[in-house]
Queue: 2 jobs
Job 1
Amino acid sequence: MDTEFTLTSGIISRLIHAQGGENDLWTSGPTLQFISIKKVPSTSSPVDRYRIIVSDGEKYTQAMLATQLNQMVTDEAIGRHTVARIDKLTCNVVQQRRLIIILGITVLGKASDKIGNPDNIDIPIAVANPTAAPAPAVAQQPIHQAGAPRPQAVPNNRGPVVFPIEGLSPYSNKWTIKARVTQKSDIRQWSNNRGEGQLFNVTLMDESGEIRATGFNQAVKDFYDKLQEGKVYYISKARVNLAKKKFSNLPNEYELALEKNTEIEECLDQSNLPTVKYNFIPLSNLESIEKDATCDVIGVVKEASALGEIVSKTTHRELKKRELTIVDRSGYSVRVTLWGKQAEQYEHHDQPVVAFKGVRVGDFGGRSLSMISTSMMNANPDIPEAHALKGWFSATGSTENFQSHSNAMPSVSSGTFNRAEVRTLSDVKESQLGQSDKPEYFSSRATIVHIKADNISYPACPSEGCNKKVTEGADGQWKCEKCDRSYEKPEHRYIMSMSVADHTEQAWFQGFNDVGLAVFGMPANDLVELRERDDAAYNAVMHKATCNTFNFSCRAKQDTYNEQTRVRYGITRIMPLNYLEEACVMRDLLHSDWAR
Amino acid sequence: MSDQRSPRVNSARLPNYLGQTVRLTCKILKLQGDRTIVQASDGGEVAVIQLSGKSALDPYVEIVGRVEDAQTIKAMTSINMGDNLDMKLVNDCVELTHDPRFASMF
């Protein structure tokens, strides 16, 4: 049980005494043992921090665990006497002592006891670069209690040595980060009771993480044009503030404010450029992501809709949008919505591979994706997944049939036709679906046997989005109570009660306008007019509408009407049959175990 | 007349029905006068004779005819099946009709 661990002896001493420029030291991956781990409550942030005494067998010193690794302590992946290889570390100077910050580790194992007999490295260092700018008396890192030193991050000269974004905190002020602008917002004006101004923000990313930076007023003029999406910059002397979570959904506790004395310089050194880190989810797994969460996906754009415009119900402003349908090798497709300028500027006519980062998951039609302000879209990125996708698509993918998250075809979730959950009507009735308080969903293939003819439509308010019933006044005008307006003619909308049956049972389904359109093949207005004009033709239409078979997605729910409680089946989706698909389903079923 | 059976076959099953009437759903490959070369649902090629050219033939047809030998059918009538047919589905269907599990149905 007690394997021999070899610690990198002498490394602690070297780390503590290193002067600027010894980059390799920080990436050398030394093996150290954790002598003790202690939780330190943070005064300035809600996240706890862990202080670890690390030893190389000869000396020990204090180290802080980067918050993104906190999980390892709570999961007990690391603990007292753990031996680990420190893949990534940096250090801050506090009270003239160097404090190691552990950013990344690989656990090698847990020793049964302390290795060697290390003693405290505890030696105040000679600081290599004295502070030129006036250093404010800042309260220090939330670990030690006394004094007000001048925190300086040592391996921090401009040039090759940079600070990781994860290591930024309000207590370090002489830092430089090298980061890529992954997203830049438009310039926004605001005016509220405290004044007005303009602002813009960018998302900066390096290998350690991401952080948002905002520039106000003067900073907009200074930096807006300078910072370009996709380019890498050295940034220093921006203020580190606590993140305003309301305006950003990046996982960083802090954010940067670009100020008058902030320095931004484009990085022309092509090596070591931070690249965007993606964590792609195959489209087939989208159901497991919660609504409103964000994720990264990559796929081939099979279709791109034309630029459309909708009016936002909340702000009543026009919004430009475009829908892309992307597919990937998991065999699924999903719709991604682009907004505003991105929608307008999308000009790819081929079928590019596009990588999306931080798109929000919605449950429209099952699952859908939407670009939000912090999302990123990158067409034909130079990453291995993109090349693999391109190859797959040109070989087989372009002709494949995909399971869709946003269409009428087989998938999960309410409202779409879930092939796996198809029930016969007798099954639906026997299982008493909908008898409990919650609505239950099912799918069925059934044939329309009879449509209740007495009430197939109602006069509705013609204004966009309002479907309320309008009443005819004495003057012949139709009044809508909700919109408080009168109209010449109402817009008729279908409301139907149909008897449907399959080979097992019969049931009554209720449907609205979309159902009527599918069943009758004409808008309600036309049918109502036909009824008044030509009785025989109307009857013919009604007759023709029966005996058609559809796939239905339904919601079963209890309804109380005049003291009578019944289960009513509402149609959420009606889909005409694709005979080829249905035949294939039946063929597959005959080939499956069920048929044995 | 009630005993007019015409089981649906593919090229591999032709030898089982020599001299009998069958249905072959196929894709027309070549028209050579009185002889038409077609591709059955399992990919095999069959020659069809006396397939009348009176009515226009779709790319996919179903031939009802008598099996002359393992590669030839003498056509009696044909049914147009359009220009888009999933031959794999057709073949699965043919195989399923001959499946012993469903012998009572066919």
Job 2
Amino acid sequence: MPRLLEIENLRTQFFTSAGTVRAVDGISYNVDEGEAAAIVGESGCGKSVSALSILRLIPDPPGRIVDGSIRFKGIDLLQLSDVEIRRVRGRRIAMVFQEPMTSLNPVLTIGLQLTETLTHHLGMTKEAARARAVELMGMVGISDPERRLSQYPHHFSGGMRQRVMIAMALCCEPELIIADEPTTALDVTIQAQILELMKDLTRRLGVALIIITHNLGVVARYADRVHVMYAGKIIEQGTARQIYHEPGHPYTIGLLHSVPRLDQPRKEKLAPIEGQPPDLARLDEGCAFRPRCRYAVERCATEIPPLEDMGDGHYSACWEKDKLPQPQRAAS
Amino acid sequence: MSVESAAPGADIGAAPSVAKGETLLEVRGLKKYFPITAGVMIQRTIAEVKAVDGISFDIRRGETLGLVGESGCGKTTTGRCILQLDRPSEGAIIFDGVNLVELDQRALSPYRQKIQVIFQDPYSSLNPRLKIGTIIGEPMKVHNIEPNVNKRRARVSELLSICGLDPRFADRYPHEMSGGQRQRVGIARALSLNPQFIICDEAVSALDVSIQAQVINLLEDLREEFHLTYLFIAHDLSVVRHLCHRVAVMYLGKIVEFAECDELYDNPLHPYTQLLLSAVPIPDPVTESKREHKMLKGEVPSPINPPSGCVFHPRCPIAVEGCSGAIPELRELRPGHWVACTEV
Ligand SMILES: Nc1ncnc2c1ncn2[C@@H]1O[C@H](COP(=O)(O)OP(=O)(O)O)[C@@H](O)[C@H]1O
Ligand SMILES: Nc1ncnc2c1ncn2[C@@H]1O[C@H](COP(=O)(O)OP(=O)(O)O)[C@@H](O)[C@H]1O
Ligand code: SF4
Ligand SMILES: [Mg+2]
Ligand SMILES: [Mg+2]
């Protein structure tokens, strides 16, 4: 598959009274056309900021993209004028957020919000937009679309609102959808419905997907390639199978030991990662994971480990990556 | 005898019963209906939310009972009824042989000490203007457990270290702590009154996985060290499997299935439980690629007008005509494994 998105050495910082927050600290990754990529990591590690940076939606001040390039089909998004980037947003790259209520206008009907995008971005006539809106609602599994288009966001349940957001994202037939924790606020059965819908539609329409989540199960079920973030950096990347079955970074190993399994009887106590993630305004030298790392050696305190290929496109940023034990995963 | 009709305080009867171990808490035929009122001058009740609609179960001393189900199914209301924060519309809450429903506020006071709660969002349950030391020490003062200031301070330090926090945190404010640390404060506060029973209502749900695992381990250690009994309310079914001895599955105010933990996860019998478990993604791509993903269609109906008969019937893949008629009773289909479905 040809490359769709190439992010290189992206650095986004917030200049606050508490100091410079290194929210995204030199990340690089690619997304191929039609691929489902996942960015996974715990809260505050820079997932959302990395996604917002792609669309240049970082509030300035206090934030700024200070370095790097983001090439989308060869065009560097960071070099585009404000007018040009606005034409990319929503049209070629769409976003779905965790809380659809904040992206929907509470006083406008769902129909108006959907058709507005169509008339505004695609120059459709009102009638054509209406017909397309009905079609989109059907695609995302909302029954009785004619009636529901005249309703307001508060008439919709959380799951239904997220379906509307997906319909909006699909409006302009984008090449990439970035979904930032799209199901975090939803119940697990609704989560399964929404993720299945996104997977099905993106595959059918050939749209690439970047799904941002803290849920390791969601990643395992839906992602092809996985990028694990910690403290503003990607510390491991590889296929889902590599990440879960041959994790190459102490943080990833720790995460996998921290989640209980639904499909296996309890064996022993969980083995959590001790301590907590660092303050991104006060990062020490060396590896950001060192204070919590069981495998740290001397050089971890002074030198930042680079993200390096361990073979087969599996990358890890750890000085000890070749010496790590493999967790006992049930070969099922 | 059906669970529905189990008389408050009556013999255990057909409720999920105690096979071994001593019973600490019995919930019998618990109902909680919230009135929905309308009218400007004269408020009249136009409908009722059937938040909890006739549930019965026991909790054994020292066990952790899991209460699972999707949001709105009545988990929190069940917990609040046990705590007597909500007075049940019907039913009995028998703690250590005493029906709390029959007690007045004064007589309840000792039970407010013995039964504690840990909430999901430690931030909203901690007063932002009070220092951590005061937050943890206050209940001891109110319940007159430790009137001496210095001894109380020492006890706060002890509780903080038991919960894995530096005793110096006593001088900090809630906003100066991370989510995981605040949850530990919530636990320390719950422990301050030497409770026997703790209701953990989504106590680890808001935490990141690495921090969540720390708090899960802490809860387990405390259960052993202080011989605690937990009602563990959660929507995360993986965490519940790890932490609980037995599990009750709720749907629209009813218990639809009840079993020993591994039995429930390995042999779910109720169609709702089966679909619920199928929806949970497992953190293993190989397992996931082999698993059948059965989708639960639609959304949970309103508890104001719950479906007739089996409340699950409109969404149930195996429903037959009779399912919209009679309400299915919990039946013990395997030892200790209770299911409210006539078609299994
Ligand atoms: N507007 C902002 N001002 C200051 N700091 C911010 C702002 N937005 C995000 N940050 C900081 O950037 C870091 C990364 O945040 P975010 O990308 O939202 O994390 P995640 O999505 O992984 O939970 C955090 O430390 C956060 O506090
Ligand atoms: N004080 C209240 N007044 C009216 N309805 C309520 C009240 N508390 C809860 N409910 C309703 O009762 C049902 C069960 O709620 P709850 O016990 O909080 O569920 P859960 O904890 O399982 O998410 C929901 O439909 C909820 O909206
Ligand atoms: S580089 Fe060192 S401190 Fe960082 S994860 Fe690897 S071993 Fe641990
Ligand atoms: Mg985020
Ligand atoms: Mg609740």
